[in-house]
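Work package 3, deliverable 3.1, input record:
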Amino acid sequence: MKIAITIWGTKISPVFDSARTLLVVEVQGAKVVERRHEPFEGHLLNRSLMLIRALDVRVLLCGALCEAPARILEANGVEVIPFLSGDVEKVIESYVQGGDLAKFSLPGCRGCTCRWNQS
Amino acid sequence: MKKNSQAAKAAESITDAANEIILESISDGVFTVDLDWRIMSFNRAAEEITGTPRSEAIGRYCWEVFRSNMCEGNCALKRTMKEGKSFVSSSTHIINNLRQNVPIAVSTSPLKNSKGQILGGVETFRDHSLVEELRRELSGSFEFGNMVSRSKTMKRIFNILPQVAESDSTVLIEGETGTGKELIARALHNLSWRKNEPFIAINCGALPDTLLESELFGFKAGAFTNADKDKPGLFQAAGMGTILLDEIGDTSPAFQVRLLRVLEEREFQPLGSIKAIKTETRILTATNCNLAEMVERGKFRRDLFYRINIISISLPPLRERMEDVPFLVEHFIKKLNFIKGRSISGVDKEAMSLLLTHDYPGNIRELENIIEHGFVLCNAGDLMVSHLPVSLLQRKDRMLSPAKSVIGENVAAFEEETIVAALKRNNYNRIAAARDLGIHKSTLFRKLQKYQISLPKYDGRSSRSNP
């Protein structure tokens, strides 16, 4: 399964819309077996969506994201886990190990990191 | 000397307390950061605007709390601390903890010690949501795609369109002819993730059953005479896009069954094929009929009605939003000036008052045609009464001419229009129309004769005799 993370250097990009790089990692079991960086234009939602679909990404981990684009991503079969912050590697590690991502929540957004349709 | 120093300390402490009170009472958000971009202070308004409690904000990186689209590439605070100078009122957006985009204006200043060394920065920001909203209100108009309106009903419709577009549910768009049903459908498509996929509109009422089915579902070679090769239908052509089935109320019961299957199974069968094809096309439907009433009369399948009526949008006729007429006139003049390379300046007062007295049975499309008619006759300057269609002028003669502006005649004209409207409303059932008008049926028959109102052959009492 492939997961994508909008990144800013070694951190999760604070806002999805202004992210310029997408890190795509392939996970098998609890291991990352492949990773690649893709140029990303978060402000162009449709282009972002097409890229995410073309890369067959199933899960998107990102920073702050408004409700409307999140719903559109989810309508396209992408599980969105937004409002995350912190070191990218630690977030990936926690995700693949099935850990609780709430500890990576952006300040004031602890309840926002779950999937939209569960929140 | 000692007294002076004590007084100075007391004054300093009062100033600090006053500064804190001021910071807490102002409506602008204020926060300060150290040289590592960690938040040192965060006032009450900053908590409110970002939705982040101070206790969670202090000590965190400013971009994690502020969440602006400037943070990553064009940070005003970074420029301030690099150049040592203030920047005032940059416009940007932040995302609050309610997942909303909040427009704000940002100002930044460096924090310096007495030696002029930069110790950090201060950022103040103001919520501009209300300003943006007021700006829209003051312009007095609401625009959506190619639609413009001042009416509250249309504003409510425009407000829900983004949410409706996001969902993949079937939508039923109801409205009289010319009210802009296709424009709404296009707006829904353009707002959705399908916007780069095809949008196809088909008038179901204009085609006989077999042709409509072959258009929509396609056919296999040999399915019928002259079908010498396979032809894909519009559902295949639309792919992941959107199909608008216009005049859905005019389709046959047999077609309604087939459409119901497409909606329920998300698959269709081309004519002459035994294999079903899956479809992911979004289906929008439109009608100028009252489908609920047709269901009651057995003219439209109830199960299909419930399947397409998941979300319904009802467009008001232009006569119910006459406040839009001047605005639409201006819109069409701008549009036609652009298309035809002309410079018509507007509509003069007399022509406008005539336009405002018309009841537009053809709705917005009729108004657009009237303006286009004016463009043919008017070369420059304002459109005048003489540039408007004769039918409108005849109405003007009838309503406004001094020779005929006798109260009795205007009352008679109004009475005639009211009776015709009541008959239409009641499907030409005379008894129901008389009840609707609050008059006895014999009075209605007398008035029908008086005004020589012609009626269709059927009388609305029996659905069997209706066409």
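The domain at 141-314 of chain B is CATH 3.40.50.300 (Rossmann fold).
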